[in-house]
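Hi Y.,

Following your request, here is the sequence exactly as I used it, all 498 residues.
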Amino acid sequence: MKIFSAAQLKEWDLFSIDEQQISSEALMERAAKACYHWLINNSIVNQPLLVFCGKGNNGGDGLALARMLLENNIPVTTYILELGHTGTDDFQINLQRLHHITTDIHFIQSADFLPVIKKSDLVIDALFGSGLNRPLDGNAWELVNHINNSGAQVISIDIPSGLFSDRSSKGFTAIHASHTLSFQNAKLAFLMPENDLYVGEFHLLDIGLSKNFEETHSSKYESIDLSLIKSLIRPRNKFAHKGSFGHAALIAGSYGMMGAAVLAAKACMYSGIGKLTCYIPSCGYEIMQTSLPEAMCNISGEKYIAATGNLDNHDAIGIGPGIGSQHDTTEVLKNIFLSGKGIMVLDADALNMLAADRHLLSLLPKGSVITPHPKEFERLFGNVANDFERLELAIREAAAMKIYIVLKGHYSMIVTPRGKVFFNSTGNAGMAKAGMGDALTGLLTGFLCQHYPLPEAAILAVYIHGYAGDIACEKYSQQAMQASDLLQCIPEAWRSLL
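Below is the corresponding structure, written out as tokens. Let me know if you'd prefer a different format.
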């Protein structure tokens, strides 16, 4: 699913109007009807309902929604923010229609006209849409703060008022919505952690915009969906053998940290690879052989990995889970980089070593994949002021270094060297626990080992990782689920996808 900019969203509306030979007012009616059905289907109309409208087309959506609710005997009070000018044509059409069925319409001309909002009320926010291009001020600022301070549940139409669609709103005032009812495709703002307070849970409502536009117009950003995943998964040939699915190397583990190596190794095997060799210190030999008898072990060093030997026969190499950051281990990492053997995935302690040694970071082979969480990312590339700056920095660094960056989070993003960014759509807050990143490293190494190209391997890894996490959440709850539970749910995720 493509994620379009605010300008492209406006163009999409106009394209659909022209292609389908409909009026803009008819498209507004579709949007309002989709919101009406969502409210009815979710039984959220059994309390006093207040609709707040601006004078743009987002306000027109709100007026049309208020009319539909009233026509179905659901009491509504409508408030219009007075901005000193007439509304758009479609706003005026819907205002006239609403006047025909109710007199319960009020204009907010200043802070003196702010209504009493009870905590038991339901507020529909239709003040400003995705076309907003400056921070709120004046009466708009007063009204939004008044709504936020009321404690009432708020449902925003299109986007929470005051929030920018595709740039940071950090430090500005915006509606705090419980739910956001948006149209067709997600907006970039919805996927940024800094906007969670504003967006709440977002829902995408299909209003029949042109499929042709989506197929023919490019986008810098894309959300990973089930149809994309199913198109990437390769069927297994019935005459295949273990050599058909690659031989992975996993360089992981140290004294007291063998659990990370085991989690990564199990995830790697669950990806579908043919063979796995784990390069570990001797202290972890019995742990690995007992926990995962399917994996082979190459031993070097007592408590920390001291060497790896020849890695020529491996199709992909995963490095980092639990290896520590001893001097000898850093030298191992440097030698692997200089050997240029295999496609590499780096996580955890491997990233800490890169952050501590800028020269080592400069040796990172082109085409490598790094999987930092936000703090690891900042240790590598510097601090940022907001999530949008972090995204732009990731795009620049991936292009400059010719690497792939999997920036982990609720909507993990895969940043490619060419500037394309994919956002994952699976996973949950129960995955914010130790060991989850190790599992992702193993899965990603496994898909690369099977010769899935990038970024497809990363797309499959983050999606299946999150999908297994969602299954584990259903079984064990967000609070109780652990990384080992996620691993046990990967086969179930595979069965569902296949």
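The mean pLDDT is 96.

Thanks again,
Q.
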